[in-house]
Amino acid sequence: MQVTETLAEGLKRELKIEIPAGDLAAKLDAYMEDMKSKAQIKGFRPGKVPVAHLKKMYGRQAMAEILSNTIQETSRQAIEERDERPALNPDIDLPEDEAEKILSGEADLSFSMKYDILPSFEIIDFSTIEIERPVVEVAETEVDERLNEIAQNSKPFEQKDGAAENGDRVTMAYVGKLEGEPFEGGADENGQLVLGSGQFIPGFEEQLVGVKAGDEKTIDVTFPEDYPAAHLAGKTAQFDITVKQIDAPGDIVLDDDYAKSLGLESIDKLKEIVRDQIEGQFGQMTRQRVKRQLLDKLDEVYTFDLPEKLLNSEFDVVWRQVEEDMQRSGKTFEDEETTEEEARAEYRKISERRVRLGLVLSEIGDKNSIQVTDEELQRALYDRVRQFPGQEQQVFEFYKNNPQALASLRAPIYEEKVVDFILELAKVSDKTVTREELEKLISDDEEVA
């Protein structure tokens, strides 16, 4: 095997690899000898089939297999000998007219391979990174508010005579129409709505105040401009309603008896669970904020060239998602007060950040032997499977038989473990903030993102 470097520019590499025809012929002879001992061909005793006959029957097919295996083996060997790390699998270029000659044994194997190598960079001292961790102290009033919400949502309702008031639950059949024609998802035979809850389209609930069981009514409402279903956004619809029943809410006393109705031993235990839930929610928001700060600081520190093919691949994924989102929402670039060219440039920057940070986190994890355990991956797989009730076995088999899909479960676990590793070494200081301040920090981060 002869390897010649034909390009070494930045991260780009191109090699020319040549294998003498004699080497390929020797591999073909060895292949045929092995086949001779196994072949069972009518008219010949086992192991007595002439090699020339086998070559005539299977030579071209065998040489194609040898050629494919040789290209893979020599490509891998060439890169290993150069001690390089390709960003993606190399592109192999073997001219078709040459391939025919090689298959027939008339020419040496000569092909080129192009690839980008991963950039080299130094890992910084993580103790130089300063992170401010916003922490919300859960007040007793916050716990009480959440308990009251739980109580409100679990209030008993009893049927009543008379007109519906705010707080009452209305059971009804309704059909929504656009220009006199029913639209998909706009009908229910036994829909229930607590008046004043704000669960339906603005203006819907208000028009039900005062209705009684047995009433029939048509109301007009206008869907919000930002309504998720694009075919309904901003449209005025009519709903034909038949009121079936009015129920009035009862009262709930937050005491030990109420807690026991939920399967807990006391109201204090319920408060403890509620507090843990609130702290968990704030903890997730805090984690999001801390991680964002860390990634921003790493993005500031690291500036290096990126493998072009890897960057283009990432941009294609990001841009495809942008186009799908816009198509789903029915919006245009003009609606977003931009142009396609400006949007492409902006999302190109986002792709560059994602690729750069991905390479940085991967290098940090590799240098510090951070790994995802089988147990962690198995747990992630089961969590994913549970998201598809009734299809658990199919989803499980899909991930088990699809290495790329399984890698998509491993990647976020690996990233979080690397982030945790860095945070252990960074200077992290806690700052007590209010719930509103934390929410604003998260909102500002999302707006920048």
Automatic annotation (TrEMBL):
Domain PPIase FKBP-type as annotated: residue spans: 167-227
Keyword Chaperone: yes
Presence of keyword Cell division: yes
Subcellular location: Cytoplasm
Catalyses which reaction(s): [protein]-peptidylproline (omega=180) = [protein]-peptidylproline (omega=0)
Keywords, in A-Z order: Cell cycle, Cell division, Chaperone, Cytoplasm, Isomerase, Rotamase
Top-level taxon of origin: Bacteria
PROSITE patterns: FKBP_PPIASE (PS50059)
Signal sequence interval, chain numbering: none
Gene Ontology BP terms: 'de novo' cotranslational protein folding; cell division; protein transport; protein unfolding
GO cellular-component term (any): cytoplasm
Gene Ontology molecular functions: peptidyl-prolyl cis-trans isomerase activity; protein folding chaperone; ribosome binding
EC number(s) given by UniProt: 5.2.1.8
HAMAP family, A to Z: Trigger_factor_Tig
Function: Involved in protein export. Acts as a chaperone by maintaining the newly synthesized protein in an open conformation. Functions as a peptidyl-prolyl cis-trans isomerase.
Family to which the UniProt record says this protein belongs: Belongs to the FKBP-type PPIase family. Tig subfamily.
Written domain comment of the UniProt record: Consists of 3 domains; the N-terminus binds the ribosome, the middle domain has PPIase activity, while the C-terminus has intrinsic chaperone activity on its own.
The protein's name in its UniProt record: Trigger factor
Encoding gene, per UniProt annotation: tig
